[in-house]
Amino acid sequence: MSSVIYRYGLKNDLVAAFSPIQLEHHSLIREDETSEHYIIQTYNCSDFPGYNILASHIYYNRPAMEELVKNAKYVTILRSPYTHLKSDFYFTGKYLRFPNAIDPLEEFVTYRYKLFTEDSGQRETTAIQHYIRRFRLPMSGDSKEKLLAIEQLDRELDLVMLTEYYDESLLLLKKLMCWDFEDILYHKMKVHKEYQPPLTQKSIDMITELAADDIQCYNYFNETFWKRIENYDGDFEADLKAFRSLLDDVNNTCKYGNETSYCELLFDDTDSLRHKSQKKYEKWIC
After folding, report:
1. What number is the average pLDDT over the span 155-170?
2. E strand or H helix at 160
3. pLDDT of residue 166
4. pLDDT class of 132 with cuts at 50, 70, 90
5. What is the pLDDT, as a whole number, of residue 22?
6. pLDDT at 38 over 90
7. What's the pTM?
8. Distance (Å, whole) CA 207 – CA 52
9. Which residues of 103-128 are buried (b: 16+ CB within 10 A; e: fewer)?
10. Segment 196-200 mean pLDDT
11. CB–CB of 7/266 below 8 Å?
């Protein structure tokens, strides 16, 4: 999703904020899981206009975000904890730690589950679960208390997208932001080529325990996602069909020799788009 946001920002001359790990020389935001505030670089010695976009993997901190980007819409994207764990396992190279395993992911999950059962659970569920940490949701308390926290998060966010339904999510983003179809076009990147065994039932059962809070969060927003589509202002299926047709046409046109700046931007991956967005800061650095 970040690539769509950065691409829109570049086309519309918007200023993006970045976390330290995304910058080559200048740290605009510094934060961690326990921080209450962001340390923000504002370039006071120039005509710096302020930030319009934050599209980073960053901990949810509403007061600090409101200070950083004024009058913003708050959008995030979730993925099933089962496939999220699997994707992260292979993308970050964790599978290389198990060179002799028939199913490296199952061995990894089994190892985590063993620690979970021996260590009262807290540390290992924290290591496995992504959403409760990123959104600062409670890791203790009963399911009702956790549901109340998720409902509060729902009230604060303008849109929660789902990776499994990316095209449908982009249509909801387009509607929320009053964008055009061209603003949500994308080119698929970073497809894993190495073989990934399907999740076994054993792994699924263990992940269900290890990531119980993340699963509760995902299931909640999965339900609200489809309710939002039911209440879509317009003919959702017709818009989805039109978008996918345009997506295919533009990708094919750009793929086969159309070397325009538009196609270059469309085919840029997130890192390239981020680098181009960072170039803006050169005119404000004293």
Report:
1. 97
2. strand 159-162
3. 97
4. confident
5. 47
6. no
7. 0.86
8. 38
9. bbbbbbbeebbeebeeeebeebbeeb
10. 87
11. yes
pLDDT band at 133 (very low <50, low <70, confident <90, very high): confident
Q: What would the two tokens of residue 190 be?
A: 């970073």
**Residue pointed to by tokens 């969060």:** 217
Q: How far apart are CA 138 and CA 146, in angstroms?
A: 6
Residue 154 CB contacts under 8 Å (≥ 6 apart), including other chains? 160, 220, 221, 224
Half-sphere exposure of 284 (CA within 13 A, CB side): 18
Point out which residues pair with 162 in neighbouring strands.
78
Q: Which two tokens stand for residue 63?
A: 């007061």
Measured distance CA(87)–CA(93) in Å, rounded: 10
CA distance 275 to 111: 38
DSSP, collapsed to helix, strand or coil, labels residue 36 as: coil
Torsion angle defined by CA atoms of residues 170, 268, 86 and 208, in that order, rounded to the nearest 10 degrees: -30
Unique residue bearing structure tokens 């950065």: 6
Q: Give me the mean pLDDT over the 94-116 stretch.
A: 86
Alpha-carbon distance values, 241 to 87, 132, 237, 265 (Å)? 28, 35, 6, 24
Closest CA to 34 of 63, 69, 60: 60
On the question of pLDDT at 284 being above 70, the answer is no
Work out the average pLDDT over 125-140: 77
Of 65, 6, 38, 23, nearest in space to 281 by CA = 23
In contact, 15 and 53? CB cutoff 8 Å: yes
**216-255 burial by CB neighbour count: b if 16+ within 10 A, else e?**
bbbebbeeebeebbeeeeeebeebbeebeeebeebbeebe
